Amino acid sequence: MILITGGAGYIGSHTIIELHNAGYDFIVYDNFSNSSKESLNRVSKIIKKDILFEEGDIRDSITLKKVFKKYNIASVIHFAGLKAVGESVKNPLSYYDNNVVGTIKLLEVMKEFNCKKIVFSSSATVYNEVDTKKFTPLKESSPTGKTTNPYGTSKYMIEEILKDLFKSDNTFKITILRYFNPVGAHESGTIGEDPNEIPNNLMPFISQVAVGKKEFLNVFGNDYDTKDGTGVRDYIHVVDLAKAHVKAMDYLDSLLINNKPLIVNIGTGLGSSVLKMIEAFEKASNKKIPYKITQRRAGDIAKYYSDSSYAKEILGWSATKTIDEMCEDSWKWQKNNLNVNKERS
Ligand code: NAD
Ligand code: UDP
């Protein structure tokens, strides 16, 4: 059985559907700090099966041990953590505590129970921002570690901890997935990203403009060295991303021994500008997205996207969904779920 930490969240809830479809058994472990049981109810309806879950915090070793005692956990997919860049600058201790301390606690318990397979959610944010221009498309070997905020630093630290853990015990089988920009939602329109406050990221913001919750979008700069002057990113449909976790699990299960932690970019290998995303969303929603060009956002970089060839080579995975599909599914989710926060339990 796979333990899915943070399985009620945005990426976790999509991943459990794909794991179920692939025949894996799992149990979700989540403290619901940024999600709700309602998302698990909805997944349950999609897969037509009850979902096993235990409420708990990854930093709470006592509860975690109880879960390991109760279930036969052979591997972990570790999504749990805090993810808002701006908030991490304001509350660095809480980010290091949740993400870094939480992961250490989890790894200690895994070790105690001889559970040594883990897939970890890392991020393209670990790549050195100053070097992105030189190294885009970013390969897994591109330089990392010169992060610019506590969130990114926490991801980088965890990667280093996992590498050191492997050096100390090479029976661990570790896969680190570096996600690019996950967007979109399940085609049912019943689960998706549900930001608690004002969204910082482009897609949730565009969706809220389309649905009338926000008047207009601020486009942060149109004087970058890109085709139309706006920032370029590698957006990836969350269902494609979810499927990458199934491939990562298949891969770890097939290994007798891992030579080193596997690090894989999960992106499409394509870059899309802000204006291109607005255009695609307008087409998907049949709504006008009013926008204003404003100043560049501090710390933003012009352009980066993945080299996604290694994922194809090692995991046999590549993204299949287009930005039109990403926008159609985001829109379906957004228009059906105006007040999903109220359903939090
Ligand atoms: P999310 O906030 O929707 O999901 C995270 C889940 O973890 C939530 O359900 C939350 O309640 C839970 N959680 C948080 N702290 C916990 C703790 N201490 N103990 C137990 N549960 C806890 O976020 P997401 O977008 O699904 O992201 C999942 C993972 O992927 C995170 O580690 C995130 O950093 C990483 N990631 C996300 C993105 C992105 O843009 N969404 C990009 C790169 C990496
Ligand atoms: N962006 C924007 N307006 C917004 C939010 C984002 O113009 O309200 C731009 C941002 O400058 C970047 C791109 O959209 O070029 C993606 O931003 P996001 O925060 O989603 O991802 P990240 O920058 O963290 O990769």
Q: Main sheet: which strands, in order across?
A: 3-2-1-4-5-6-11
- Rounded Rg: 19 Å
What compounds sit in this structure?
A: nicotinamide-adenine-dinucleotide, uridine-5'-diphosphate
Helix content: 40-55%
- The fold-level CATH name is Rossmann fold
If you had to describe this structure to a student in words, what would you say it looks like?
- The protein is of the alpha/beta class and 345 residues long.
- 41% of the residues lie in helices and 15% in strands.
- The strands form four sheets. The chain has a seven-stranded parallel sheet with strand order 3-2-1-4-5-6-11, with helices on both faces. A two-stranded parallel sheet has the order 7-10. It has a two-stranded parallel ribbon with strand order 8-13.
- Residues 341-345 have low confidence and may be disordered.
- Bound molecules: nicotinamide-adenine-dinucleotide (NAD) and uridine-5'-diphosphate (UDP).
